[in-house]
């Protein structure tokens, strides 16, 4: 009979990191993984589970025989995920392929985001994006239809695919028709004041888009990550403003082209 492997000791730091990865919620049932005692102290309500089992039973070996693994080493952080105690018990005794794939996919997405932030976190969008974004405030206060882009000029239809999602498509096309011309004018003014500054911002956005593309992010994820990045610059604090700017760069061919 083969010997059962004992699991490695999982440190508190690793547990905290895993908890952050799932944003504090059980990925299978969405319950909170931290609670409070009557005393007010925090209490941990999760176990660290192996996604691919450490000591697979004969039926698990058959169940998962065609499934990809997260790591050749089963007993490492790459293959760990926090689950609430009831879900952990059920997953360890009666898992399904769908649950395995669901947890596998979560970790793959987390790995992609980690790699992305390692490569890009030091890249700060040029601060002059704030001056460009000012035009959005002015536009919101002064709805002048003469600055709207005509629907004929909208190029989103040629660039989008099914992964953008219909809600994003409606939002982006609306933002482009409303804001493309004034933002373009704002970049033009910036270019006149500061030589090549606009081109610098355009090339930063294009570079980030190419990085996201090389990592196989789909269009909805590209839109999401791009907005997140715009909001890490001190200049853009509102999500809607970031979405307007990313929509501008779609029409202007730095993104999705
Ligand atoms: Zn659960």
What topology does this entry show?
Blueprint: H1 12-21, E1 34-36, E2 42-44, E3 46-50, H2 58-63, E4 80-84, H3 85-94, H4 97-120, H5 129-141, H6 156-159, H7 166-193, H8 197-214, H9 219-232, H10 239-251
Antiparallel strand pairs: 1-2, 3-4
Helix pairs in contact: 5-7, 7-10, 9-10
The structure holds zinc ion.
The site of zinc ion (ZN) has 7 residues, from strand 4.
Question: How would you portray this structure in words?
Answer:
- There is one protein chain.
- This protein is mainly alpha-helical and 257 residues long.
- The protein has two domains: 12-120, no CATH class; 129-251, no CATH class.
- Helix content is 54%, strand content 6%.
- The chain is built from ten helices and four strands.
- The strands form two sheets. It has a two-stranded antiparallel ribbon.
- A hairpin with a 5-residue loop joins strand 1 (34-36) and strand 2.
- Helix 5 (129-141) packs across helix 7, helix 7 crosses helix 10 and helix 9 crosses helix 10 (239-251).
- It is elongated.
- The relative contact order is 0.11.
- It binds zinc ion.
- Zinc ion binds next to strand 4.
Can you give me a brief rundown of this structure?
The protein is mainly alpha-helical and 257 residues long.
Bound molecules: zinc ion
- Strand order in the largest sheet: 1-2
Low-confidence stretches: none
| Tally of strands | 4
Count of alpha and pi helical runs: 10
Note the run of SSEs as H and E.
HEEEHEHHHHHHHH
Radius of gyration over all CA atoms, rounded? 24 Å
The chain-level mean pLDDT equals: 91
Q: Which percent range fits the helix content? A: 40-55%
Distance between the termini: 58 Å
Largest sheet: 2 strands, antiparallel
Query: Beta-sheet strand percentage?
Result: 5-15%
């Amino acid at each position: 009979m083969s010997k059962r492997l004992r699991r490695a000791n999982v440190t508190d730091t690793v547990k905290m990191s895993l908890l952050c990865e799932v944003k504090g919620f059980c990925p299978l049932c969405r319950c909170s993984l931290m609670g409070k005692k009557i005393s007010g102290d925090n209490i941990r309500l999760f176990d660290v589970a192996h996604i691919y089992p450490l000591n697979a039973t004969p039926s698990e070996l058959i169940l998962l025989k065609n499934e990809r693994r997260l790591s050749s080493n089963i007993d490492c952080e790459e293959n760990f995920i926090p689950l609430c105690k009831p879900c952990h018990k059920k997953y360890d005794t009666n898992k399904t392929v769908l649950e395995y794939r669901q947890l596998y996919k979560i970790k793959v997405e987390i790995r992609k985001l980690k790699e992305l932030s390692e490569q890009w976190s030091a890249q700060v969008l040029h601060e002059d994006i704030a001056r460009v974004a000012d035009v959005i405030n002015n536009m919101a206060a002064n709805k002048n239809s003469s600055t709207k882009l005509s629907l004929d000029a909208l190029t989103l239809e040629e660039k989008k695919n099914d992964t953008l999602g219909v809600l994003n498509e409606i939002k982006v096309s609306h933002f482009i028709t409303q804001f493309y011309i004034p933002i373009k004018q704002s970049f033009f003014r910036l270019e006149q004041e500061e030589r090549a500054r606009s081109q610098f911002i355009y090339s930063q956005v294009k570079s980030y888009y190419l990085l996201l593309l090389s990592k196989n992010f789909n269009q909805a994820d590209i839109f999401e990550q791009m907005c997140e990045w715009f909001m890490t610059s001190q200049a853009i604090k509102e999500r809607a403003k970031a979405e307007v700017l990313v929509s501008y760069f779609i029409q202007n061919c730095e993104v999705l082209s």
